[in-house]
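In this section we walk through a basic example: taking a raw amino acid sequence and producing a predicted 3D structure, encoded as discrete structure tokens. The instruction is simple. Fold the sequence below.
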Amino acid sequence: KTDMIYNLTHEGSIYFLSRPRRFGKSLLVSTLKNYFLGRKELFKGLKIDAMEKDWKVYPVFHIDFNSTNFTIQRALW
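The resulting token sequence is shown next.
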């Protein structure tokens, strides 16, 4: 499926990735993160290894919304 990652990053411009619970969202994000960090060694033997020639390194910002409670508290006046 790494050929799909290659196509996702080289074609189109904006994607909204929506998938059901426990359906591989974190794995997909981790794969994209390592691809953009240029970690070619993690993709040895996979389709993307033969497709990608440059393996450029890009800055990656990873924001994890699971570590904080985002519940809105009503102020008592």
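Looking at the output, two observations stand out. Residues 29 and 62 are 9 Å apart (CA to CA). The first helix runs from residue 2 to 10. In the next section we compare this with other chains.
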